[in-house]
Write a structure and sequence with these properties.
The chain is α+β, with helices and mostly antiparallel strands. The chain is 36% helix and 26% strand. It has helices spanning 2-9, 12-21, 60-71, 87-90, 116-127; strands at residues 23-29, 32-36, 39-44, 47-53, 76-77, 83-85, 93-96. The strands form three sheets. The protein has a three-stranded mixed beta sheet, with helices on one face. It has a two-stranded antiparallel sheet with strand order 2-3. A two-stranded antiparallel sheet has the order 5-6. The longest helix has 12 residues, at 60-71. Mean pLDDT is 76; it is low at 1-10 and 125-129.
Length: 129
């Protein structure tokens, strides 16, 4: 798929490197919400609920690439029932929820390291989505 992506979209070396480490848990939803201390902090109708895995070396460029990739995933059915439509095609919603622990290595010990420095930059990288 990467060769096709590189040829079709001119993704080049940068996109290949990001794709090799990109992690995102993507869920199609009819509706979704996030609640913190019994207060709704985000909600959407039909669309994508995304847990983007943010790496400690990610910057705005990587966040932008991740947004383009997730919004172009053809994972919604068209009128014929084929998975041919993206969230962008439908004008549907996206609710990102930061999830930097997707990159944590738990081979040793029982407490994920969670890349503490990343937590400070996380809101900006996630809100780009």
């Amino acid at each position: 798929m990467m060769a096709h992506l590189r040829h079709r979209h001119g993704a080049g070396e940068f996109s290949r490197q990001i794709a090799e480490r990109m992690i995102a848990l993507v869920q199609r939803v009819q509706k979704a919400s996030v609640t913190v201390d019994d207060v709704a902090v985000g909600s959407i109708g039909r669309g994508l609920f995304i847990f983007p895995g943010i790496h400690s070396q990610d910057g705005q460029r990587e966040a932008d690439w991740r947004v383009r990739k997730c919004t172009r995933l053809r994972i919604f059915p068209d009128d014929a029932g084929q998975m041919n439509l993206s969230v962008g095609d439908l004008g549907a919603d996206i609710l990102p929820v930061s999830q930097f622990t997707l990159y944590d290595n738990v081979r040793k010990g029982h407490r994920p390291p969670s890349q503490k420095r990343l937590a400070l930059r996380l809101p900006n990288l996630c809100m780009s989505m």
